[in-house]
Amino acid sequence: MDARCLALGIVALMTWLVTDAVAEEPEPAAARKIIDRAIEAAGGREVLKRYEKPFYMKRQGKALGGTGWEDFTIKVTTWLPDKLRTDQELTRHGKKTPFGIRFNGEKGFHVPGTREMDASALRNMRELLYSQWLATLLPLDDPQFKLTALDEIMLDGRPAVGVNISCEDRPAVRLYFDKEAMTLVKHSREFNGRLFEETYDDFAELDGLVYPKRIVQYANGKKFVEMSTAEFKFLDEVDEAIFEQP
User: N or C: which end of the chain has fewer CB within 10 A?
Assistant: First the structure.
């Protein structure tokens, strides 16, 4: 082998090594970078620790029901990762109908009344709260979660970068962030063969915490809820009995 062939062979070897290194490194590193930037955009790690406390939200909006779009008001107390209480009032044909749920992490109930959730509803509640917990971002510092960068998408005419989050025995969750602002703009998961998605905009700030005020929900691409946050506050303490059977 002459010197020129040897040199070309060395260049080819170095190119292969570099290419191989890039191919093995990218997904976790790229995904981790996205999450770290999103954490800073949301207010930083110290601010996001507030989600370890219970929090209360009041939201107003419209939901697609059997008779078309109906107005509702909902008050939600959440204690992540596994407790939720909702008190909702739906306006249908001018008449207001109250209902809600209680979920303590193990059992759930529909109110009014004490109708207990079946196995499918319980699983959906656990997966819903799990995905909401991941969307607060700090849980993703735990190495049990595998982060994979997703292909860039366009959302409302703006590019968004995404991360797929997987963990053993848990459903995959996908989070997308505005490529420039790095705010969370889309959240998706699958349940019972259906794709559930939420999109977020109209961002506000609460003592350094950046959060979306407007939320739109879709099932298999069809919009069924749109709502805005009228009130949001963290609670220093809460009586756990509010999540129990009435």
Answer: N
d(CA 27, CA 79): 32
Looking at CATH, the fold of the domain delimited by 3-243 is given as: outer membrane lipoprotein receptor (LolB), chain A (2.50.20)
For 155, residues 6+ apart whose C-beta sits below 8 A from its C-beta are: 176, 178, 185, 186, 199
Q: For the chain, what are the domain ranges? A: 3-243
As a whole number of angstroms, the distance between CA 194 and CA 221 comes to: 10
- To which H or E segment does residue 57 belong? strand 55-65
Q: What share of the chain is helix, strand, coil (3-state, %, to 5)?
A: 30, 50, 20
Q: Look up residue 29 and give its two tokens.
A: 């590193």
pLDDT in tens, 135-161: 999 999 999 999 999 999 999 999 999
Residue-wise pLDDT tens digits, 111-132: 988 899 999 999 999 999 999 9
Give yes or no for a contact between 78 and 235, defined as CB atoms under 8 angstroms apart: no
Q: How far apart are CA 28 and CA 149, in angstroms?
A: 7
CA gap 219, 225 in Å, rounded: 9
pTM of the model: 0.87
Q: How many CB atoms lie within 10 A of CB 63?
A: 17
Q: For 141, phi and psi rounded to 5 degrees?
A: -75, -15
Residue 160 and residue 185 in contact, taking contact as beta carbons nearer than 8 Å: yes
